[in-house]
Specification:
With 327 residues, this protein is of the alpha/beta class. The protein has two domains: 5-126, NAD(P)-binding Rossmann-like Domain (Rossmann fold), CATH 3.40.50; 127-283 and 307-326, Dihydrodipicolinate Reductase, domain 2. Helices cover 35% and strands 28% of the residues. It is built from nine helices and 16 strands. It has helices spanning 14-25, 40-49, 59-64, 80-89, 104-117, 131-142, 176-192, 280-292, 302-321; strands at residues 5-10, 30-36, 54-56, 70-73, 93-96, 121-123, 148-158, 198-206, 212-221, 226-232, 234-238, 241-245, 248-252, 262-266, 269-273, 324-326. Strands 7, 8, 9, 10, 11, 12, 13, 14, 15 and 16 form a ten-stranded mixed beta sheet that branches. It has a six-stranded parallel beta sheet with strand order 3-2-1-4-5-6, sandwiched between helices. Strand 14 (262-266) and strand 15 (269-273) form a beta hairpin. The longest helix has 20 residues, at 302-321. The radius of gyration is 20 Å and the shape is globular. It comes from Paenibacillus mangrovi. InterPro entries: Gfo/Idh/MocA-like_OxRdtase_N, Gfo/Idh/MocA_domain, GFO_IDH_MocA-like_dom, NAD(P)-bd_dom_sf. Residues 134-251 form the GFO/IDH/MocA-like oxidoreductase domain. Residues 5-123 form the Gfo/Idh/MocA-like oxidoreductase N-terminal domain.
Length: 327
């Protein structure tokens, strides 16, 4: 290709500094050329630390920069809709952090804005771009574990002591279902290739943390198969995935973070499946670039994000109202 796609980053969030920007830096198809913060000094400091050429003191400046092709939005959840729509209207392609929005209705507005502007919009579930998920899907499709009978997954960590964290602002889209519960929901939909019929979720809402859900456990009903999951921001760290089949089991000890191998248990034998050590954030950026350049189709368009948000909406309603929610 003649040039790399130029990225602008809206905000100096930890996920951007720790993972996404370094991942884009490793790409041969993309480069980060600008970062913005409402605090210009913060933008300048981050730009210097991460070798980004330009620092802006406003998000608008990124959107007004004609050299930028793609924007990455790692802002707090309640700002995703506004800045995605503004980025689309500015003609920028968009990688937006998960969850895409606060509701499925918001996600639909964002998708409409991207479609009208003729730009790509995709949700930043980086794990889906790691080659181990291609390997897992191939094993399932080959019948290596028989028919799927159930999926179990979890994503938990303990950050409860950081009382000022944006995850603990209810009006900003805080809570464990939004932050990490979205991963097990996403992976079950990905592996089963269909949408659920209903959800039932129980949650612990913490008065110390603005009444957001600090722990949730749920059953997502896909008809003949169910996902059982839990998620937490006030529990020991883990992110496993287990796919139970009639003839075997696939175990992924670290399903959403890192790039470790996984295991298949069949006929009493546990076998380790080796996977390449790929940076999923780089793969995510490369896939988006490939779609923008017309070299491939976008694997996960906004319709997928809308569908995931519908399940999240139902989970939150179920947890709050103590009811089974039919989708």
């Amino acid at each position: 290709m003649s040039r790399k796609l130029k990225w602008g980053i809206l905000g100096c969030a930890g996920i951007a500094k720790r993972a996404v920007i370094p991942g884009v830096h490793m790409s041969e198809m993309n480069e980060v050329v600008a970062i913005a913060s409402r605090d210009e000094n913060k933008a300048k400091q981050t730009a210097e630390e991460l070798h980004i050429p330009v620092a802006y003191g406003s998000y608008e400046a990124i959107l007004e920069d004609p050299s930028i092709d793609v924007v990455y939005i790692p802002l707090p959840n309640h700002l995703h809709k506004e800045w995605t729509i503004r980025a689309a209207e500015a003609g920028k392609h968009i990688l937006c952090e998960k969850p895409l929005a606060l509701t499925a209705a918001e996600a639909e507005e964002m998708a409409d804005a991207a479609e009208q502007a003729g730009v790509y919009l995709t949700e930043a579930f980086m794990y889906r771009y790691h080659p181990r998920y291609d390997a897992i899907k191939e094993l399932i499709q080959s019948g290596a574990i028989g028919e799927i009978r159930g999926i179990r997954s979890a994503f938990t960590f303990n950050n409860a002591g950081d009382s000022g964290n944006v995850r603990y602002r209810k009006d900003w889209g805080g809570g464990s279902i939004y932050d990490v519960g979205c991963y097990p929901i996403s992976v079950a939909r990905l592996l089963l290739g269909k949408e659920p019929d209903a959800v039932t979720v129980n949650a612990f809402f913490s008065p110390e943390h603005d009444d957001v859900d600090m722990m949730a456990s749920g059953l997502v009903d896909f008809g003949d198969v169910s996902l059982t999951f839990d998620c937490s921001m006030w529990a020991a760290s883990r992110n496993p995935l287990e796919i139970l089949g009639t003839e075997g089991i696939i175990e992924v000890p670290s399903a959403f973070v890192g790039s470790g191998n996984f295991y298949i248990i069949s006929r009493g034998e546990r076998k380790e499946i080796q996977v390449p050590n790929v940076n999923a954030y780089t793969a995510q950026a490369d896939h988006l670039a490939s779609a923008i350049l017309g070299e491939s189709s976008l694997l996960y368009d906004p319709k997928d994000a809308i569908a995931n948000m519908k399940v999240i909406d139902a989970c939150l309603l179920s947890a709050r109202e103590h009811i089974r929610v039919v989708l």
